[in-house]
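User: Predict the full complex structure for these chains.
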Amino acid sequence: MKVLIVEDDQFHGSYLQDALSEALPEVTEIISASDGLEGEEAARQPGVDAIVMDLQMADRNGIEAARTIWSERPDSRIMFWSNYADEAYLRGIAKVVPPDTAYGYVLKTASRERLKLSLRAVLIEGQIMVDREIHRQQNRGDIQRARLDDSEYAVLMDLALGLQDRLIAERRGMSLRTVQNRLLSLYEKLGVDSDLDAGLTLNKRVRALHRALVTRAINVETLETAQRDLNEWLVGRASPGRRS
Amino acid sequence: MKVLIVEDDQFHGSYLQDALSEALPEVTEIISASDGLEGEEAARQPGVDAIVMDLQMADRNGIEAARTIWSERPDSRIMFWSNYADEAYLRGIAKVVPPDTAYGYVLKTASRERLKLSLRAVLIEGQIMVDREIHRQQNRGDIQRARLDDSEYAVLMDLALGLQDRLIAERRGMSLRTVQNRLLSLYEKLGVDSDLDAGLTLNKRVRALHRALVTRAINVETLETAQRDLNEWLVGRASPGRRS
DNA sequence: AGACCTGTTGCGGGAACCCGCAAGCGAATT
DNA sequence: AATTCGCTTGCGGGTTCCCGCAACAGGTCT
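Assistant: Here is the predicted structure of the four-chain assembly.
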């Protein structure tokens, strides 16, 4: 069995390599890549059965690399290994994982035992496994009162990009008023108003983005990929009617 | 010589310990802390001459820890050691470093040689030393067209918190129109308009925050500490004139 | 001194935003 | 079939935001 490790921190990389060969005796070969691009390249080698991937990497991050890898080989088993329990990462992964594909998400702070267990479960058994820390993070009701559904999340991304209501409506195919309703529930769920019990009134749009960031509903990498998606959408929209 | 290492990643911690004792033969004792709070505590021990501090830590981050340490012992020499070259960190450090105090900022991606050199320069020689990568990051004119001055930065933080113009004016002691002028130049410097050459008009406030984040002018930790500062200011404002 | 530049402030108006109200519509329940 | 519930949509109005225009103060250059 041949496993690819994509990790840009050499210490974490060698620790991972250790744990991997300890946990999975069936591994015969380990290859490494130190950023997302290299990772995509290396994953094209024949015989790569499984991948362990860091999420935060300089050039191309883990989720983007995973997207291209999965688009080429949808049955690849990928284990994500990350410092942070941001909900944004989980959403990002959920958007790119093919159906019936095994993947996992463990934190770097997890114990060696849990890491080894997860590696076996995902890479060998083909399970789907997400560190319970990550789910717990999201559900703490004091900070994030309710989960955002997909449509709300989409609007949140557009808001975060700075689109105005009209544009969001066009992009998401809703009416203007519906967009505003989504925003309303976003403000509610993100706790925008709860901060102004102190009697101060604030800019809800910006505050929503602020709250989304500090609650880890989105993060800066999310913003960057969302910007790329927006650019694609924009060129797709710019064909006919070259007016003004 | 007694040195304190504050670092929550054990691998990086032991690497640092190695490099430290290699680079500084005069070190006789190394003590460790694994988060900001522990670090503050440990720094109170007698005889701690120098500190190496990670910036990203779970509970209390490196800058906050440095602030309390410096407030107790302003002559402490602190070397910051970080994964990211965010301008936000540099600004945060600049705000808390006492005058005539030695400090340094190196990236974790720096070579072992450069790390050792910086350690000597800062902890032994008492120099101020900032990794050139960090300055380079900020000055790339394609992304960030011009540096923000302190007043603009302050307004940017308030904007990021979701304050509206009136509040910012009150907090910073400017007129409403002046605040708006600051915002104008922020929009300019952050490149808010440059994105809308594609002909799309967007919400400048939110877009400014977006740009500030992706250009690393600010980051999420900045937002969190700014929120705390805001809360302090709010309670300080709430005493007399209980009007409406 | 006069010209000039930079930063601050007020005014005013068009655009965007926030949101209450109410009508419409499909799905689930009774 | 009637009712209820949730979601969508249009309308209207109060508020905030963005910013051009212009007056003014203080500092610099000639």
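Chain B has two domains: 2-139, 150-237.
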